[in-house]
Every structure is written in C-alpha cells, then in structure tokens.
UniProtKB/TrEMBL annotation:
Pfam family, one: AlaDh_PNT_N
Alanine dehydrogenase/pyridine nucleotide transhydrogenase N-terminal domain: residues covered: 4-137
Family the UniProt entry places it in: Belongs to the AlaDH/PNT family.
Reactions this protein catalyses: L-alanine + NAD(+) + H2O = pyruvate + NH4(+) + NADH + H(+)
Keywords annotated in UniProt: NAD, Oxidoreductase
UniProt GO molecular function: alanine dehydrogenase activity
Taxonomic source organism: Pseudoalteromonas shioyasakiensis
Catalytic class of the enzyme: oxidoreductase
Enzyme Commission numbers on file: 1.4.1.1
Protein name: Alanine dehydrogenase
Amino acid sequence: MIIGVPKEIKNHEYRVGMVPASVRELVNHGHQVFVETDAGMGIGFTNEDYVAAGAEILPTAADVFAKAEMIVKVKEPQAVERAMLREDQILFTYLHLAPDLPQTEDLVKSGAVCIAYETVTDSRGGLPLLAPMSEVAGRMSIQAGAQALEKSNHGRGMLLGGVPGVEPAKVVVIGGGMVGRSAAQMAVGLGADVVVLDRNIDVLRALDAQFGNKVKAIYSTADALEKHVLEADLVIGGVLIPGAAAPKLVTAEHIKAMKPGSAIVDVAIDQGGCIATSKATTHADPTYIVDDVVHYCVANMPGAVPRTSTFALNNATLPFIINLANKGYKKALLDDANFLKGLNVIKGKVTYKEVAEAFNMEYVDPRTAVENA
C-alpha cells in the first residue's frame, strides 16, 4: 500500500503522523511511504531522517494526497485538506466529528474511508489510541492551570501547592478517566488539594486505591459538582463520551458564582467541551476571561509538547497502520470488531451512531457499510 504523511497545518501543531522508525516498519513490510517535506521538523526529524528510513519526500501536501492510498495524520483534516480527499482513500487520524458539522459534511462528500483514532476500542472497552494523548493532556492541564492562576495571567495569584503556613489551591477534576487520573497525579505531585468527581463507582475505587487520602474521590451528583466547583481555584474538565459531544456539566451560572480569578482547563474541548462557557482556543492565544474566570480551552493541548506526544501516539497507532496496510481496510476492519468501532464515515455514509445523532444524519451499521463498500 502507498501511505502518505502530510505536514500538520493546524495552529501551532508540530506533531507528525509517523516518525522515521514507524516509516521503516512500514517499508520493511513492503509498503511505500511518501512524506511531505519538513513534516517532522517540529519534533526534530529532517527530510534526510525520513529518506534514511525508506520514505520518499514530496514537496507539497497536494502531492502526498494525490499519490497516497492511505493518509496518516494527527489532527482532524482542515478544510483545504478535506478538499484533497478522494473516494476510497483511507484517512486515519483524530476526527472528533460530533461537534464539527462542516468537517462531517466534507468527509461524507469526499467518499473517503475515515477512521478515527478516538473511537477505536480494545477488549476491555478502553480507547487505546486516545489514551496516550489523554495522558499528555491530563498532565498538561495542571501545568496550564497553574499558569492561568498566576496574577499576570489574570488569575487569583495562587501557587498550586502553597507553601508552609499557606493553604494549597483546590483543584477539582471532573471525570476520573485517563485525563482525570493523569491530572490528579500531577496535581497531587505539586501538593494541591485534589478532588475528583465521577459517577462510576469502580473508577472512584481505582482512584482511592491509587492515591489513598491524597485525593478525595467523590460521587458526582448535581449538588456535589456545584459545591466543589464553587469552592475550586482550578477546575479541570475531563469528561468524555466516546465519539459524542461532551455534556455541559458546568453551567454559566456556576461560572458566575466561582471565585474571581479562578481558572478552568477544559480538556474535553475537542468534543465540544464540558463547560458551558468554553470555546476552542489555540496555543497562540490560549485563554480568555468569562465572569472573572480564566478559561484555557486549547483544542490540541498535546501539540505543545509534540515530541513526547508524537512518540506516544506512534507507539499506539503503528500496529493499526501496519494492519490496514497489510490487509486493506475491509479485511482489517471486519477482522476486528474493536477496530471497526473506529470507522466514522465510509463512502458517504456515517457509521458512528453518536455522530449521526448529533447532526440528524442517517446512521449505517459499520459492518454492513464495509461489507457493501
């Protein structure tokens, strides 16, 4: 198969779909890889590094899209990239379609086979291709929140861990999944007063087993959420419903009642955000103020640490890329029910129920769609 790796073009996005070591693995399996010039420069890989791994360098994204049977990216394709997709071409990347009607419409129109990293599952119901970026984003959320609390950034002027004789900041993490656990780990390490809210008792037990009395694992009710959010100095939004728009758990009324100078980091912003006042921002302009609360809502947080993020992502995606290349998309998807859940759009049909429901589009069972493709 011919695999194409274009350079990412989203604002301040320096990750790349495949590192040279991944390219070498594909070439060793007998496949051909085209990489756009300077695609890996943001994480320190030169064109020569990719050539040494067996890739061929092409001057433009248009050249890559024109030649490749499968496009491997990191972030959702931007409008100019979507226009280059063609029927039967495989797109393997993060998509986050549920809050993004224009992208969904364009992918449907393209006729391409669009597989989303974030909806591929494993045998335990986990999200193996989302997990590494959730780990990065969860840990980064505490760094971003700590900066947002600084007075120069319009925050309360608090140090997360306090100092002897001064109380630490209260960090409230909404959602105890991979993002929430990673955020809690960082916040505990910095000495903050940490509360994690979740509705899954098993998740709360796991948090208690991992952190003991360093984290207050609280069952999330409307009362509990309101109480802890209003007491918080920093709120981390880490709620995820795979493939669907995130529920708005923190309301505009909550924001108005929060302490002036407190901060919010909405890690769920890729799926529309779980804070009512959230709107996507970029690394170039990451924060804004609503009712004296600092909001950090960068939609590609791991892009700020692209080298770490790219390697973590490639470790997870490479077996799936090889599988697609070796078998073709039909056999690869039909052989693995968990991988099949990654299929969001194929040849003009929406095959992920939550996306179809979000936009009142017709839903087609993914297995049926692949068998009839």
